[in-house]
Fold each of these.
Amino acid sequence: MGWLDVLGWAGSALLIFSLMQSRVLRFRLLNLVACVVLVIFNGLLGIWPMVAMNVALCAINVWFIRKLLSDRHSETAFEVLQVGPLDEYLRHTLRVHAADIDKFQPGFTWSPVIPGHTAYLVQRGDETVGLVLVRDAGGGVAQVELDYVTPRFRDFSPGEFVFRQSRLFRDRGFRKVLTPPGMVAPYYGRLGLRREGESYVLDLS
């Protein structure tokens, strides 16, 4: 097998692999690289219809990547909606993502009947991208029970919007936010929150 065959097989394999990605941005980036490889491969063989198709796909991927990156830190890309702790859609979302939630917060349980618990859906348009479940711990402290982002949107920054850009906690009178203890692979350090034991702390005063 010559190097040109290797190039063609590698491009095709990467194209297939990109279609298996659940994360939107990762899919677009891998698909773009695969299309570039296939442009070179088909160009060297002189298969111009395939070159034209892959050039068009490259342009489409670049357009979507630029749009996705421009929305990544936008204050208007996301919205936080409060729902009742017993809301059926909230319960449905928790059931659907239960196995994935357990990977990041092992042993998580939600007790909606306990006073002081509030629930929020993080939305991007009409799509739910995450959940934030909060318990009022008293003294102006918000204890986050669950901070979850769906796999499709983990390349974005809904957490940055919730903790830094939105007024979710300030508008409810909280002066301090504690993140869930024992969370696997927490990202809060990148947002500037300070570590305190197994949690991170956001001071709102």
Amino acid sequence: MFVRLSKRVKRFWAQLALLSIEMTVVVVLFIVALSAFIYITRRVFVLNKTELDNNVFDYLKAHVSERNNDVMQFFTFLGTHQFLIPANLSLIAYFLFIKKHKWYSIKIPAIALSSLGLMFLLKGLFDRDRPLIPLLFEARGLSFPSGHALMSVTFYGLLIYMIFKGVKNPTLKWILIGLLIILIMIVGMSRVYLRVHYATDVIAGYCIGFLWLVFAVWLLNKIEKQGRRKFDKVVEQPQVTTVRA
């Protein structure tokens, strides 16, 4: 009896320590992302410094080729609304009809739509024009922050969150997470390679996407817990039967 209780206590403290590590990592990344966004915004819009953007363009110019053009166009497609809308709808359908996870089917569209609204709001607020000489094609709309970077972080980042919480095999879990992180990075890089965004646009998109994803997941999880508590109270409430004379 004592040995069994001791094992349970050790398991509890191990889980608590793991949770603390997770929270610490998320908080540190949140602070870093917020600081980076403030730094970039000040550098670009207050100090009018564009050395980073110009240096990145100069570096990528030496790597332009037909093969790289095709590769970058493929990855940039994975961050477009033509791909992300069907991907989001497919994910909603999966959790709604196959996995039977109602809250995930709510979180996915909530994060996707709120991220889209935030992107348009920030683009209108900063009102930065796109690079003057695109590599292959002109892109519509404003430049800062990059919508591809922001929406990629919120969509693929949500997948990373689901995999982290749902996949039990640690090897498979970290392989999938690593591949999704690489995908997010390449999607953003493709926008700079194609000269439809500045590097600072993409970095800002990553930062805002991560900040919003963390906030949205935290808020939706809180709403989910409150909803479940209310549901449990209704279910557990004893039914009062009335006897008619």
Amino acid sequence: MCDALSRNVPKSPAGVEILLANCLAHGRRQFVEVAANFPDECRYVLEMLGQAYGHDAEACEHGLTPEERLRFHQERSGPVMDQLHGWLEAQFAERKTEPNSGLGKAITYLLRTGIR
């Protein structure tokens, strides 16, 4: 588990498989930091992430096994994250957000976490 900075990707010896998991909290923080300048866009992103965090809290409350928790997230959080991913990509594709702006950098960072 690490943030989405390329220098944090571990180097492994040949034959060793690493499962890389980028930290969503770091991506969320990027939007919190620019929210004053992009309130509507950041509110949308933070609300979508809040839904996923809410599902995680619900899964924990129910004491689900890892397999049940994965299925729960695939069913509940998956569609939320897919919608968010589409919105993030559309910001650049439809030229709604300048890539070099604070919001653009936050979007790029969150996309690098591999959200889906």
